[in-house]
Design goal:
two-stranded antiparallel sheet, eight-stranded parallel barrel, TIM Barrel, 10 strands, binds NADP nicotinamide-adenine-dinucleotide phosphate, alpha/beta
Length: 328
């Protein structure tokens, strides 16, 4: 079990949270198909009321819509002690633009300062990355953000940008991490540990397939290789089902708990109230040694998968943003 875990909380930078985050891409994006704003807001409020205190969103999810829904949930529940994380799209991260984008996200969220402001993916190779990091650092001085983080950086890229920081630490790296995407275990975990950083995992449920949802019914599932990997792995599906049954929890809770036991802070996409229970269940039980070994053995082949990239760095930012605008 991770040394970062202490009791039922974990730290990101200097912020102590429950080690499961509420993911909100689902709440605002066309790629996920229909769900009403009210449904998503209610699910977030319910999760906060259940004691979860970490929410992740991004300016690109529904181009501001997800941030607005999170903002509404925070207005209804209250934002005290909630770590609110959002992101600037890698393609919007151009020198001179970071402060403007952070200010717009802060307004949509309705908070005084963004808890964790993240760079959503490494920008194109034509961008001066150090200047982006300096502008991210300036957000802390301006009181717009409390902490800064990155997403989708593999260990070698991370080592390079850490040299850019002048004044503040980059506290986290948010990457795809699940039972069917274990590439971060090769070098990234070790690199993050060395620098006192936290791995925040996305794709925890492989778009629901690790929770037994194996029908392709929206674009997000259609386009995700991890969804198919999980949906077609019957040995894994069976192991999750048996372990869940033994502990009296949902299958989703088993997949979430596995990620916690590995030392990550898993994000779980949430837009339905009935799914909140699984997030809470994941905090209330532990996987036995032999259960972890069984899951690790069945999923060993996914250690060899390529690290997940969300945008090829060779493509100019403007083209990447145009493509994402069509889908997200
Ligand atoms: N940094 C990045 O590049 C990046 C990329 C992707 C995602 N993310 C973040 O990570 C979050 C989660 O990752 P993800 O979007 O890949 O999704 P995920 O967590 O792997 O899957 C979420 C989906 O699983 C289903 N689900 C959730 N709980 C369930 C339960 N208890 N039982 C059955 N099904 C359940 C839901 O499907 P239905 O809603 O259809 O019911 C939900 O939308 C996102 O919301 C976002 O905040 C970040």
């Amino acid at each position: 079990m991770s040394e970062h875990l202490s009791g039922k909380t974990i730290t990101i930078g200097d912020w102590r949270i429950k080690p499961v985050g509420i993911g909100t891409w689902q709440a605002g994006s066309r790629m996920w198909g229909t769900s009403t704003a009210e449904e998503a807001i209610n699910a977030i409020v319910e999760a906060l009321s259940s004691g979860l205190n970490f929410i992740d969103t991004a300016e690109i999810y529904g181009w501001g819509r997800s941030e607005l829904l999170v903002g509404e949930a925070l207005r209804r529940y209250g934002s005290d002690d909630v770590l609110v994380a959002t992101k600037i799209a890698g393609c919007n991260a151009r020198p001179g633009y970071v402060v403007k984008h952070a200010e717009a996200s802060r307004r949509r969220l309705g908070v005084d300062a963004i808890g964790l402001y993240q760079l959503h993916w490494p920008p194109s190779i034509y961008t001066d990355e150090c200047r982006i990091i300096w502008e991210l650092e300036s957000l802390i001085d301006k009181g717009l953000a409390h902490m800064i983080g990155v997403c989708n950086y593999d260990w070698d890229e991370l080592e390079k940008i850490l040299y850019c920081t002048r004044k503040y630490e980059i506290v986290s790296d948010q990457v795809e991490y699940s039972l069917v995407q274990r590439a971060p275990e090769r070098r990234l975990f070790e690199t993050l540990r060395k620098h006192g950083m936290t791995l925040i995992g996305w794709g925890t449920l492989a778009k629901g397939a690790l929770a037994g949802k194996t029908r392709v019914d929206n674009m997000a599932r259609l386009l995700d290789p991890s969804f198919y990997a999980a949906a077609k792995n019957w040995e894994l599906q069976e192991a999750i089902r048996e372990i869940a049954e033994k502990h009296g929890v949902s299958r989703a809770a088993v997949a979430i708990r596995w990620s916690i036991e590995k030392g990550a802070v898993p994000l779980v996409g949430l837009r339905r109230r009935r799914h909140v229970k699984s997030l809470v269940e994941a905090l209330g039980f532990s996987l036995a040694g032999e259960e972890l070994e069984r899951l690790d053995r069945i999923t060993r082949r996914y250690l060899g998968r390529g690290f997940t990239r969300v945008a090829p760095r060779i493509i100019p930012n403007i083209i990447v943003c145009a493509i994402y605008r069509l889908f997200l």
